[in-house]
């Protein structure tokens, strides 16, 4: 085993879990054993929540300009340790080094936004009648929780950690049991950056801890990122317990490709979108809607896809079950009449036989009723559905229950605007395959890709992590000055 057993991080210390239940942490790159992760019990969550509750009065009363100093130092530490952090992500998640490094760069950008919060979060003040002022201020909630998935071991936790904590909350995070190593490193960097004990806590675990978070009376808000199936469970359970909850789910992102699209740019964008991070991104292109004759672009897409080589510029998928699921979708579609133009099944990487690789895959003539056309595949696969018109393509996109992202490739501005207006997704790209809004813009989908109000990052997250206090103050000593006094 390459690393020591994973421990929880409670009240500023790494502590061994008392649970006897553990899981192996396996590297998707070669199947080697990296560590073991404890599946903690409810008692351990209670201890973490108590530590966070104890830290809250001091932290929430620290002025925000002082609180963000921790995140200026944390940002510097992310930059300083970029290589080590990226290597760790690659090992536990299986993505390539450059994808892992991009994840740290994005974590840095997220932290920069948190550092800027004092410039953004100020409340309002207005003299509403003579001598009387109304004032608003954003007040932290208390103890908040963040439950995260496996596909971005650093970026997704950093969607929530800097903003929630800089805004004065104390946090419990539940890492994905598949990638717990990066989170432990994040904890040590936050400590090194000077975050007071108890403000940030990690409780490793599985369903039991997630349920305990949703039920815990002292946790005020729960953010969740993961599959739609679990997002619905978490949203229902947390809100049923009267908690504020924002739960981001899975995705099925459609790219509309029009015949006038610039062929080289479109082909490289489509392939980058569907195969980046081995297709394990909630923003990955999954279904391409080819409108009219786009054969010349499909040919280029296939050429680009063949340049994506497992173990070189294409990472591994998270585990054997994932690889089997992805390959099953491809085989089923083929059996139902779709044409596999570039086949990534049975990919092998020499010297890494224990790794779980799927090659870049392009499937043409998929029909909207096939499972591969409707469901989240979460692998480096693009299925092409042919349509005659943009409206036909939009009808397919609109009918899908998800709504994270959609994109259109065209040089016609009027058509681009038409798709922006009609697509039923929270994030739209024009000639961009992965339309992730960058700070200060916020990230969040629609429909079954997100449950709850607002977005998880950027300015929108301020509303989620705080509550507004409204005070009305009379400075005027005179009585009966107006109808309100
Ligand atoms: P997942 O839903 O299996 O797990 C997410 C978290 O929930 C993990 O911490 C896990 O331990 C926990 N969990 C799993 N099953 C549970 C259950 N039955 N009850 C309670 N908790 C449970 O997701 P994953 O496989 O880790 O991540 C991939 C999914 O996340 C994909 O669907 C992807 O689209 C989605 N995702 C969405 C976004 C977004 O912004 N919308 C971002 C990243 C990932």
Description of the molecule:
The chain has 485 residues and is an alpha/beta fold. It has two domains: 270 residues, Aldehyde Dehydrogenase, Chain A, domain 1; 175 residues, Aldehyde Dehydrogenase, Chain A, domain 2 (3-Layer(aba) Sandwich). 39% of the residues lie in helices and 21% in strands. The protein is built from 16 helices and 20 strands. Strands 14-15-16-13-12-17-18 form a seven-stranded mixed beta sheet, sandwiched between helices. A six-stranded mixed beta sheet has the order 9-8-7-10-11-19, with helices on both faces. Helix 10 packs across helix 11. The protein is globular and about 80 Å long. The model has no long low-confidence stretch (mean pLDDT 97). The protein binds nicotinamide-adenine-dinucleotide. Nicotinamide-adenine-dinucleotide binds next to helix 8 and helix 9.
């Amino acid at each position: 085993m390459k690393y020591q057993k994973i421990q929880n991080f409670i009240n500023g210390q790494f502590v061994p879990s008392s649970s006897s239940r553990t899981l192996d942490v396996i590297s998707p790159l070669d199947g080697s054993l990296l560590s073991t992760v404890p599946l903690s019990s409810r008692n351990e969550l209670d201890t973490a929540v108590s530590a966070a509750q104890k830290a809250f009065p001091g932290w929430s009363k620290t002025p925000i300009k002082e609180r963000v100093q921790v995140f200026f130092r944390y940002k510097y530490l992310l930059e300083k340790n970029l290589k080590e952090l990226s290597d760790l992500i690659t090992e536990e998640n299986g993505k390539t080094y450059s994808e892992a490094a991009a994840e740290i760069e994005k974590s840095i950008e997220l932290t920069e936004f948190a550092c800027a919060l004092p410039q953004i979060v100020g409340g309002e003040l207005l003299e509403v009648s003579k001598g009387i002022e109304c004032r608003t201020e954003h007040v932290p909630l208390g103890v908040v929780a963040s439950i995260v998935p496996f596909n971005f071991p650093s970026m997704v936790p950093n969607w929530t950690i800097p903003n929630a904590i800089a805004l004065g909350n104390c946090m419990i995070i539940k890492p994905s049991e598949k990638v717990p190593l990066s989170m432990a490193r994040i904890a040590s960097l936050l400590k090194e950056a000077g975050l007071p004990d108890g403000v940030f806590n990690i409780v490793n675990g599985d369903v039991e801890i997630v349920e305990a978070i949703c039920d815990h009376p002292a946790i005020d808000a729960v953010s969740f990122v993961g599959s739609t199936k679990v997002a619905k469970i978490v949203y229902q359970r947390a809100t049923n317990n009267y908690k504020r909850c924002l739960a981001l789910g899975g995705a099925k992102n459609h790219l509309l490709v029009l015949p006038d699209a610039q062929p080289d740019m479109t082909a490289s964008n489509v392939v980058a979108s569907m195969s980046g991070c081995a297709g394990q991104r909630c923003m990955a292109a999954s279904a391409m809607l080819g409108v009219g004759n786009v054969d010349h672009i499909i040919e280029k897409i296939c050429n680009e896809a063949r340049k994506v080589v497992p173990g070189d510029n294409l990472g591994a998928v998270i585990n054997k079950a994932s690889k089997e699921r992805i390959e099953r979708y491809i085989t089923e579609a083929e059996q139902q009449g779709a044409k596999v133009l570039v086949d990534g099944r049975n990919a092998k990487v020499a010297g890494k036989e224990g790794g779980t690789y799927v090659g870049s895959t392009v499937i043409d003539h998929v029909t909207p009723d096939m499972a591969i056309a409707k469901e989240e595949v979460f692998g480096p696969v693009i299925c092409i559905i042919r349509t005659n018109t943009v409206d036909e393509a939009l009808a397919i996109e609109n009918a899908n229950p998800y709504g994270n992202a959609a994109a259109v490739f065209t040089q016609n501005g009027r058509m681009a605007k038409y798709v922006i207006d009609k697509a039923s997704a929270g994030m739209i790209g024009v000639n961009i395959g992965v339309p992730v809004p960058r700070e200060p813009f916020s990230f969040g989908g629609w429909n079954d890709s997100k449950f709850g109000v607002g977005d998880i990052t950027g300015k929108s997250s301020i509303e989620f992590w705080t509550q507004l206090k409204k005070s009305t103050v009379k400075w005027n000593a005179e009585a009966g000055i107006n109808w309100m006094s």
